[in-house]
Design brief:
Elements: H1 3-22, H2 41-51, E1 58-66, E2 69-76, E3 84-90, E4 107-109, E5 112-114, H3 118-137, E6 146-151, H4 159-167, E7 172-177, E8 186-189, E9 191-200, H5 215-236, E10 246-254, E11 264-273, H6 279-293, E12 297-300, E13 305-307, E14 310-311, H7 317-330, E15 337-339, E16 354-356, E17 371-373, H8 374-389
Helix pairs in contact: 1-3, 1-8, 3-8, 5-6, 7-8
């Protein structure tokens, strides 16, 4: 790319990403929501306006995925019928309660754009939109149809990609999911199970605690047992790309008053599983372990969240070709990687090979002064464009 073209690409990427970050698409994360339109609507309008000059070659539809969330689905026809290339980034962001005064006022600082969602996930979203628009403007027809999903509600319940999967009649050859990976292709990540565990005791006055059974003390035993179970899992399950399974206590609440023993204590557990582990059976195995270890009455709530792991075979011809393209655009040093977090990619990985790939660093995602290097957004645009044009070998 020439220097002048590079400047133009940087200016375009900065303009679009600034508009996306400035636009509020904060996910209420299950809390109250008072706006009349879906969380992602204004971001989708920015994208629709950006694509208006090339919209005659695109099919653009809004897809409701919950009462307050929607996805935008954009389709470009290919040279041949058959399975489509799926590209996906999400339009929602986490809240910015710690920096509300400036989170939606993006600024450019030393080549980095700062603002809520700049890294997670509007940098990837902008790059995918720009890549698709480039194909149309240059008159390029991709070898197969390209479907770009600007997904809603990824940050809380992943209803956007799940609804898209349920509603789509399309077959897919492969999927590329934009998340901050610093342009390194991620082929495996962990799955997640979240639920609450409650210990039941008996209340008594704190002057005579022996007359009751303090559920908080029971919960201490549960937490210790969960640690032992995690140690067992990490000795049992290994993966070349990932650290072992994790069982993390994230919240504890119990007791009703300061002068009585707690009759109940509840914790929230976040259970991260590896590829090859089946969520429901792993949860049941943990429940059975606690039942054998803990001499307290325990109840387990229904799953608050369950997401599958991503397990894409690095030896697939598609993966080898994708890695070669990544190296050509972003550097010969690149190798496949795994990540401990979850993404929307796992929801389609049983339908087609899926890879997570995008600009930005996950270390600053969700953080105060979240940021992304604009040169990575430009490189991601180039990379996505190349992948959209690539006639991959699909088995």
């Amino acid at each position: 790319m020439s220097s002048a073209a590079q400047v133009s690409a940087t200016e375009q990427a900065t303009e679009l990403l600034t508009a996306l970050v400035r636009t509020d698409s904060i996910n209420p994360m299950g809390g109250s929501y008072t706006r009349q339109e879906p969380v992602e609507r204004q971001v989708h309008q920015v994208i629709e306006e950006w694509l208006a000059p090339v919209s005659d070659r695109l099919s653009i539809t809004r897809q409701s995925c919950s009462p307050i969330h929607e996805s935008l689905v954009i389709r470009l026809e290919g040279a041949a019928e058959g399975p489509a290339a799926l590209f996906e980034s999400h339009a929602d962001t986490v809240p910015a309660d710690e920096w509300p005064d400036r989170a939606l006022q993006p600024v450019l600082d030393n080549g980095e754009l700062i603002g809520r969602g700049a890294c997670d996930d509007k940098g990837s979203l902008a790059a995918m939109v720009l890549a698709l628009a480039r194909l149309v403007k240059e008159g390029i027809t991709p070898p197969r149809p390209v479907v770009l999903v600007c997904a809603g509600d990824e940050e809380f319940a992943q209803t956007g990609i799940r609804h898209f999967r349920e509603q789509s009649q399309e077959q897919f050859a492969y999927g590329v999911f934009g998340e901050p990976t610093q342009l390194v292709p991620v082929i495996q990540h962990k799955g997640t199970i979240r639920w609450d565990i409650t210990v039941h005791g008996t209340s008594a006055h704190t002057s005579r605690p022996e007359l009751g059974r303090n559920a908080v003390l029971g919960m201490v035993e549960v937490v210790a047992a969960l640690g032992r179970y995690q140690d067992h899992l990490q000795q049992t399950w290994t993966n070349r790309y990932l650290t072992g399974p994790l069982v993390t206590v994230t919240m504890v609440r119990g007791g009703r008053t300061r002068n009585a023993t707690a009759d109940e204590c509840t914790l929230a557990v976040d259970f991260r599983i590896l590829p090859g582990m089946e969520a429901e059976s792993e949860k049941q195995a943990l429940i059975d372990f606690l039942a054998a270890e803990i001499r307290w009455e325990l109840t387990h709530a229904a799953n608050q969240l369950i997401t599958p792991p991503l397990n894409t075979d690095p030896e697939l011809p598609f993966c080898r070709q994708l890695l070669a393209t990544c190296r050509t655009v972003a550097g010969n040093h690149l190798e496949f990687r795994g990540e401990p977090y979850g993404t929307d990619a796992a929801w389609v990985s049983d339908l087609c090979p899926a890879v997570v790939l995008g600009p930005g660093d996950i270390a600053v995602a969700h953080a105060v002064d979240e940021r992304i290097p604009m040169d990575q957004v430009v490189a991601a645009t180039e990379l996505y464009s190349a992948l959209m044009r690539e006639p991959f070998t699909i088995q």
